[in-house]
Amino acid sequence: MTTSPITTSVFDLFKVGPGPSSSHTIGPMKAAFDFRQRIAHLSIDIQQQAEAIHIHLYGSLSATGKGHGTDRAIVAGLMGWQPETTDPVALLKLLRDPTIVYPVPIGNHTINLSPQHIHFERVRYDSPYHNTMVLKLTSGDQTLTEQEYYSIGGGFIIRKGEPEIVPGSLSVPYPYGTMAELKAQLTTHTITLDELMMANEMALTGRSRMEVNQRLDQILAFMHKAVRRGLKHKGILPGSIRLSRKAPILFQQAKGMSQSSDSFLIFLNAYCLAASEENAAGGIVVTAPTSGASGVIPGLTYLAKHHFHYDRPILRAGMLAAAAIGFLVKHNASISGAEMGCMGEVGTASAMGAAFLTRCTQSIANIGPIEAAAEIGIEHHLGMTCDPIGGYVQIPCIERNAMGAVKAYNAFLLATSGAASYQKISLDSVIKVMKATGRDMSTKYKETSEAGLALSATEC
């Protein structure tokens, strides 16, 4: 093996939680919950001295954290809430009244948390990741204990000082770190992509084949519930932009155009907007691979189920193919908007969606067209900025999910036209280009709301 193997579970990539941003809500909520657990194990002497918890946010967590609800997510995590079981309505109510305090248990007493304990730092912080948060348990001016966390996209977090996973310490039967290595495994062992992904998932999680399939069905159900909610909910999205929901209008329009060739695209747009608008409203969505891109895969899978009438086994196979692509991007570049711009979020989702569609149309997985579809999906999102107006995951994010899904569909068409073997650029190559592009991109265009469309806020 020339690279460290991918040891990410499908269900770490597809996570259930509240919107609007996996790196700004799900990640910080998980970090705050982890901090809560750690202070619960401190000595009684230290616990008795504790008077306050202070949270310091840096990078994009500071720049757009208010609009993304990072402060609410942190309060929720410190109170013991976890993403999948969070009540989104209750989450949106947190911190509305600045006079309300939130009790956090520390040993045999509680300390109160309020907005003044959350610090949106504007200074540059020496950190290996853009999205950094430091939580401190204090007594007066004394810091009793602190932890530093990095939110690296898609709800994934890293704690500073946490032992790194040594390559090979987590064993999978078919290790790979690149598409070239994945294809080599398929050839060497004469297995399909479905079989490889399932075997690795079972080894990583200890789940049986039936349990993996059941969880895939649950993930799809969460996605499709978000779509259905979004198709029904009307009105104005939260935040100062006062953006109106469009999904229900598009859905009704599509139903009235059933004889038109355009109805297919309008249905797809409606489904993607529906899930994205639910995410923007703080509803429960699935990271695919992030919350900011949580409309692409749900829209495409909803279309595949209700218009193409694919059955559960086909949808599961498509989801595993999508996960394989998401793993490769996360492993070799990043799915974080703060690291890659929106090509890391919607670009990856579009590539995953193209792989999903390509796999669904095959009787047996053929890796060539799947790779070509994913490569095309990423290639035509290179350089895409992340410049949300007001820090809200609304403009351009919601429509961008619909555009990403349409690009995914076109990438699928191009890759399955019989010319996949003519593709000159490999997926590994385009992921390398993606990483380099993200590294070269100005920070102003990476989820900080300091440039681009974000400067149009005064016009809204």
Automatic annotation (TrEMBL):
Keyword Glycoprotein (UniProt): no
Gene3D superfamilies named among the record's database cross-references: D-3-phosphoglycerate dehydrogenase, domain 3
EC number: 4.3.1.17
Record key words, sorted: 4Fe-4S, Gluconeogenesis, Iron, Iron-sulfur, Lyase, Metal-binding
Keyword Iron: yes
Cofactor(s) recorded in Swiss-Prot or TrEMBL: [4Fe-4S] cluster
Catalysed reactions, as listed in the record: L-serine = pyruvate + NH4(+)
Record-annotated Serine dehydratase-like alpha subunit domain positions: 190-454
Domain named Serine dehydratase beta chain: residues: 9-161
NCBIfam families for the chain: sda_mono
Family named by the database record: Belongs to the iron-sulfur dependent L-serine dehydratase family.
Listed name of the protein: L-serine dehydratase
Species whose genome carries this gene: Spirosoma flavum
